[in-house]
Structures are given as structure tokens and as C-alpha cells.
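Before a colleague's protein record goes any further, I have to sign it off. What it holds is a sequence and that sequence's fold in C-alpha cell form. Would you go through it and say whether the fold makes sense for this chain? The record follows directly below this note.
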Amino acid sequence: MFDSIRHLWDVGVLTRDSVRLSVDIYLPPAEIKGPYPGILIRTPYDNSKESFVNFAEFFARHGYAFVAQDVRGRGDSDGDWRPYPSLDDGPDGYDTIEWIAGQPWSNGKIGTMGGSYSGEVQWVAARGQPPHLVTMVSTAASGRWMQETPFVNGIPNLWGLAWLNLTGGRTLQNNAATNWKDVFYHLPLKTMDEALGRTNTVWRERFLHPDLDDFWKCRRLDNDFKNIDLPVLHITGWFDGDQPGALYYYEGMVNHSPAADRQFILIGPWDHAGTRLPKQELGGVKFPPEVVVDMNEVHLRWFDYWLKGIDNGLLNDKRARIFTMGENKWHDEDSWPLKRTVATKFYLHSAERANTLGGDGRLSAKVPTNEPPDRYTYNPENPVITLMNWNKYGNRDAEEPLDKRFIERRDDVLVYTSEPLQAELGVCGRPFVRLYASSDCLDTDWIAMLSDVYPDDRSISLGEGVLRARYRNSLEKAELMIPGKVYEFTFELMSTCNVFHSGHRIRLTLTSSGFPIHARNPNTGHPIGEDAELRVAHQTIYHCDEYPSHLLLPVV
């Protein structure tokens, strides 16, 4: 039996600008002789440094020095908290990695790990190329700014304010005390923090930059992947809200990094939290026990190879391990996305009444001819409510159902469903939607969702995609619409991997709001965040020979 883990609490790391950052250090039992490779995790959650104890001790007992750090301005660390996308986390991460390498218990080989914010900060540190950083395990990392967060293709993400409030002080704040329904309905958006009762300069700053301008570009890694020469294990889930960011990093490294052949990815049927603590059941859908992956063992095998040089066969693995839903099996693939998929069009059809799941909207491979368009009214005072739990950060046990029929019963939702499939259909990759549509307003939003409809009529969501109309051509420049004019809108949905079984149906739903995840579009065309005025929009979706709106699926 090993002796006790050795601890060093609240040790100060001095940054280049003389700010003291706090780390807790877990060293292996004395009988495991050092020096040791190090594992660093950096967190903005003051309760996380303590909650890391179980896996910190796991790695310490396997011969690693585990270092948990409060990021600048949070917990026991000094400095000002400037939440992400922060320009401090890159230099602070670099300085901490190099500090670890210089400690007497360190052998100079450092790996980083962590999920969500703790995933993103690894990338901004790696951008600086710290000499002693050897490898990373990046889980559910955000960072595809303005396509994922804090605006999603032009639409402000309201959960961002809830997160900013949660982390609004040196310690975690009480989000459960807030009536979030009242807050999220507040207008104008840029003063929503007043309804919350806490002025938030970061929230307001975002509305000064609604376009993908230099403020956001300098925070993205678009031009940095070519300089990051590191093996990385990327982890995300089919229902992970930060999946776009995780895949952005993976694809950026595969396409541009000198270490392209050392990129591995693991994707399971997990939501954001499930990427770290996988569960067998999600949103009312039960998966086989194999989805409950031991993430400690996954990390250990990775670090053993890259930090200790243990030949455990890692490089013999295929680069992508993905879970195929429907089939409910893990598959090992040479790459992601799969090269053998075929982009297949499923066209929208109706006899002018695709409204609700009881309407006549259909999906098929047949090209539409002379069909009348579908219409619906989007009233931002009565938006489509996509969630049942208004307090995401105050009630984390509340889980949203994947069966979205409660949305599809609304008259302001268009529903297009295929005939029951005669044979299995595999879809694996990133779907797209191409709409030909018009509105009687200067601006509006489009929300699309792909679902697998079971024989018992459950409509199980596989992911959504959104677009603010003014950004139809570019996120860098807003272009308002001419009311009544038909435009083409093309946007991506969440990546997925699913086998639609025989007897199942493919469904695409279209609407103009997904509240409170996405802020309502007031349809005025005014600058984003400024409006207290709301206008009703009358939307028209075309599907005919001139305007063949369709869903584009990556079919295996």
C-alpha cells in the first residue's frame, strides 16, 4: 500500500506581469521516486480546485505531479478577472507551464487537461509555444468565437450572461436566487445585466462587437494552428454545446499543424457535462453501458505514452473513435469527418401547410417542382421556448428531453418529415440546411433542427443550427434584407453520427426563435442589443424548381 499523497496548498506562481496565481499541487507518494512529469489544469471555478481531488490523487498515485490552478482573479489567485475570451490566459498558462518545469519535483515534461473553459485556456497557452508543453487533452473546448459563442452566427447566446453572473466575483455566485425568466425577457439586451442586478462590463462590451471583427479575430486560433506542434487528444459529444469549438480545434490541427498525424478524437453520445462524466441515459434516451467511458483511464493512457514514453500501443489506434447512435456501437475510423460519406439532398415539400407535426410537410430526395411556399408568423413576444429549465447554472440536475415534440406542436414551427425508411440510413458528419426564404422585416432569425423520428412518434433531436439573416453572406459584415425579397440562407447544424433504422423517419424543423438559449430577434434591423421595440415577422419558406430548399446530409 502506498504512503499518502503529498500536498502543497496555495503555492504562488508569479506571472510575467508580477501577478500571483495560486496552485494546489498533488505529488506522488514518497516511495514513487521523482522527478515527475506534470499535469496542469486551470479553472475559473473556485469549487473545482477542490473537486479535482479524486482524479488529482488518481494521477499522483500513477506517478504524476498534478497541478490545479485558479485562473487570474478567481479563487485564491490575484489579479483582475477578465472572463473569456481573455487575453490573460495565454501568457498566464505559458508562465505556469514553465514554472512547473523549473520545480525540483518536475522532470520538465508537462501535459495539460480540462474541459470547457479549462479546455479553451490550453489552446491559448499552446499558441505561445511554451517549450516544456509536450501534449494536451482538450475536452469540450469552446473557442470558435462568433460561430459558437458568445454569438452563434449572429445570434446572442443568453446563457453567456448566466455564466458571467456565476463567475461574476472572486467566488461562484448564487444563480439560483435569480428569476431568470424575467431577466431573459428584459430588453434591450445590452442592459439585461441591470435586470439581473449586477452591472457586467464584459456583457456590454460584446454588443460593441456584434460582427466578426478584429476584437474576435485576434482571439481565434485561425492562423495559429500551423505553429502548434503538439499531439492532442480531443474529446467532445454529439450533444455537447461546445462541440463546434472542439471540432474547430481538431480540424484546425489536422488541416494545418505539423502534428496533424498525432491528433486523436473521441466523440460519444454525451452532453457538455457528459464529456467528463459520461452517463448511460441522456434526455430520456438510454444508451448501452459502453458509453460510460472511464475518462481517468483514457487520460492516463494518453499521458503515459506522451509524458512517460510507455509503449502502450497508442499510435496503433485509429485516429477517430466515434459512437454511432441508432446502431449504438463504437467505431474506430482513420479520420474525422469520414471520407466515405456522400452529401445527399433531402428536399422540402408541402401543399402550403407544413406548420406543426400534424401538417403536410415532407422530406424526400425528389426535386420540388411547382409547389406553393410555407408561411408562419414569428412573434418575438411569444417565442418558441426550447428549454424547460430556465436556470441552467442554478439547477444543473434538470435535464432537457431530447424528444422535441413539445416544440413541433406550435403553429410557428414548420415540420418536414420523410416517409418511413425502407432500409437503414447512416448519417455521419456535419449536416447543412439551404433555405430559400423571405420575410417582411429587415432582419430575422432561422433555427433548424434535425431529428430521428421513432416508430412510436418520438422526435429525438440530433442537433440544431442557427443563423441571423443579416449575416447570411458573412459574419464580418451585416447586410439587412429587403422585405419580401427571396434570399438564400445556408448554415450548418451540429455534427452527428446516427443510423436511422428501417421504419424510422428523418425530420427537419424550421422556425425563427429558440428561446432562451438564443436571444430573440426583434425583427427591426436595428443594431444588435439596442432594441426595446419588437416587430412581428411574417416568414415564407420556398420549395419549388426555382427555390429548392433542402437539407444536406452526409450519408454513409
